[in-house]
Amino acid sequence: MSNLELSLDNLRARQEANAQKSLLRQLQLPLWAETQRGVPNSLLRSALFAAIQRGKRPFLKRQLMASVENASITYTGIRLCQDYLTVWECLVHVAREQQLGNRCEVTTYQLLKLLDKKDTGGNRQVLRRQLAELQATALEVRQGRYTYSGSLIDEAYHDEETGRAIIVLNQRIVALYQGDGYTKVSWQIRRDLRTSLAKWLHGFYATHRQPFPYTVAKLHELCGSNAKSLKDFEEKTLATALEDLATVAKSHGEHFRYLVERCPGGKSLVHVTRNPDAKLPLNPQICG
């Protein structure tokens, strides 16, 4: 390596170190409206919170999760589904007005209300289990130039005397909320979607200003579906979820149109637009 190359490498290393130090001085997440949820794009564009049904889920150890090309997630913990993303979104939403790393206190009743669930003994038990399982996670996330290593929740416990849940988020998670690295997702639309795949698709396409066409096979991989038949996934699960998302988006005044194009060779492409003036299909570029 030449002296010039060595000098450039040292300069880049110092710039990266300074960027990380600057992040640690940013003690608060960006703000968003009550009707929104702020979520890092890397989490929405991956199989971390899979579009799978409730039930028994395996424990994963340093599993490289399916994701888009400019991000990577290595994950340890119980297999997570969309229910956990809903809970995590609400926790971050509550904590966004406080300094990261500080205790965020919230009543179980308030959390259940945010989740649109009744305050029953059964729902309280489920929520406590979900908080414990979100805490017992380990992630290594690379999102563009930024990285995060830690759990989804640093601390989560229940104060029996006050009846309040105590939540602490890792200060370094702010790295995933830099610039356009996160998306403000419509909570009203997500809340009204019926299936886990519809919720995953909503988050995934919300991160795209103008979505590229994706093959059905690629969407199947990225959403973490455990459907064994690609044909059944396309004709039953995916078709229902896309229609659900289009209907719910329209009811909230947002535009979402899709077209499934069957191509020679058996491939199927999913074209999506959120622009009311755009025509489908949109772009010859294929992702996946």
End-to-end C-alpha gap: 37 Å
Q: What is the chain-wise order of helices and strands?
A: HEHEEEEHEHHEEEEEHHEHHEE
Number of strands: 14
The CATH architecture of the largest domain: Orthogonal Bundle
The CATH class of the largest domain, by name, is Mainly Alpha
Return the average pLDDT rounded to an integer. Answer: 89
Helix content: 25-40%
The total number of structural domains is 2
**Contiguous runs where pLDDT drops below 50 for at least 5 residues:** none
Strand content: 15-25%
Give the radius of gyration: 20 Å
> What topology, given as strand order, has the largest sheet?
3-4-7-8
- Biggest sheet details: 4 strands, antiparallel
CATH superfamily of the largest domain: Winged helix-like DNA-binding domain superfamily/Winged helix DNA-binding domain
Under CATH, the topology of the largest domain can be stated as Arc Repressor Mutant, subunit A
Principal-axis shape: globular
Give me the secondary-structure category.
Answer: alpha+beta
Keywords: Plasmid
Pfam family, one: TrfA
Describe this structure in words.
- With 288 residues, the chain is α+β, with helices and mostly antiparallel strands.
- It has two domains: 22-183, Arc Repressor Mutant, subunit A, CATH 1.10.10; 193-273, Arc Repressor Mutant, subunit A.
- 38% of the residues lie in helices and 24% in strands.
- The chain is built from nine helices and 14 strands.
- The protein has a four-stranded antiparallel sheet with strand order 3-4-7-8. It has a three-stranded antiparallel sheet with strand order 6-10-9. A three-stranded antiparallel sheet has the order 12-14-13.
- The longest helix has 22 residues, at 3-24.
- It is globular and about 65 Å long.
